[in-house]
């Protein structure tokens, strides 16, 4: 199971990658906007330094035509590194660009997926990851859980190695629904995971354990071992 962070915040990535079993980092222009006018390539090279070579780094193109998407992909790989996954919206020009880039040996993440059909086409185009927008599908009255489950099954039958990686979650219930549907990866905002392990109920349980120990032993520490 791969858990990726949907963020470009260096402090969060550095701090939380030591806590959570992080498999990679995903970004897009909206996420980058939250960081302000950064030194783009240097910022992403720093992310790579933090996460290391074995975790995945997903960076999105800006162009909307096939040639422009391919050119953007080459620029991103040159400016950051050859191992990044180039995020490409799943449009007709995007599918054309995906096929060309895969023929060159590049790594591709198909994004902006709202339907099974888009997902099927991206898998057939050889995308390494596909990113269905879970909450946005639900907002459109689309059964997001059924959709990502169908895409997982199609990817398995197709044998392309494509990983279904839902994105655009608004709560942990949606994340769990996607995982229950069999997805091999999810990308989430760090605050969703932090909220799940830091709720008032969780913290109250931790405090109750400490209080009970204190009441029994009169201390907050384990007994010392005799040497």
Q: Please state the average pLDDT score.
A: 96
Computed CA radius of gyration, to the nearest angstrom: 21 Å
CATH topology of the largest domain: TIM Barrel
Structural class: alpha/beta
- Beta-strand portion reads 15-25%
Low-pLDDT residue intervals, each spanning 5 or more residues: none
What CATH architecture of the largest domain would you give?
Answer: Alpha-Beta Barrel
Topology:
Layout: E1 2-6, H1 10-16, E2 22-26, H2 29-33, H3 40-51, E3 56-60, H4 66-79, E4 85-89, H5 92-103, E5 107-113, H6 116-124, E6 129-132, H7 134-139, H8 144-158, E7 163-164, H9 172-180, E8 185-188, H10 190-197, H11 200-217
Parallel strand pairs: 1-2, 1-8, 2-3, 3-4, 4-5, 5-6, 6-7
Please describe what this structure looks like.
The protein has 2 domains: 187 residues, TIM Barrel; 29 residues. It has 227 residues and is of the alpha/beta class. Helix 4 links the parallel strand 3 and strand 4. An 8-stranded parallel beta sheet has the order 7-6-5-4-3-2-1-8. It starts with a strand and ends in a 10-residue tail after the last helix. The chain is globular, with a radius of gyration of 21 Å.
């Amino acid at each position: 199971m791969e858990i990726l962070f949907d963020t470009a915040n260096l402090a969060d990535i550095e701090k939380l990658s030591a806590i959570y079993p992080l498999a990679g980092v995903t970004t897009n222009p909206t996420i980058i906007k939250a960081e302000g006018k950064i030194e783009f390539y240097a910022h992403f090279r720093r992310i790579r330094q933090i996460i290391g070579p074995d975790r995945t780094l997903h960076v999105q193109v800006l162009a909307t035509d096939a040639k422009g998407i391919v050119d953007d992909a080459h620029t991103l790989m040159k400016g950051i590194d050859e191992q990044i996954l180039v995020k490409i919206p799943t449009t007709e020009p995007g599918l054309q660009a995906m096929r060309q880039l895969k023929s060159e040996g590049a790594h591709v993440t198909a994004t902006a997926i709202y339907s099974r059909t888009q997902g099927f086409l991206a898998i057939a185009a050889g995308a390494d990851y596909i990113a269905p927008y879970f909450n946005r599908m639900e907002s459109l009255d689309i059964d997001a859980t059924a959709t990502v489950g169908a895409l997982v099954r199609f990817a398995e039958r197709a044998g392309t190695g494509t990983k279904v990686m839902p994105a655009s979650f608004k709560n942990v219930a949606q994340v769990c629904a996607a995982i229950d549907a069999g997805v091999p990866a999810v990308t989430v905002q760090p605050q969703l995971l932090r909220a799940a392990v830091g709720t008032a109920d969780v913290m109250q349980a931790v405090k109750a354990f400490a209080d009970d120990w204190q009441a029994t032993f009169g201390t907050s520490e384990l007994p010392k071992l005799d040497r």
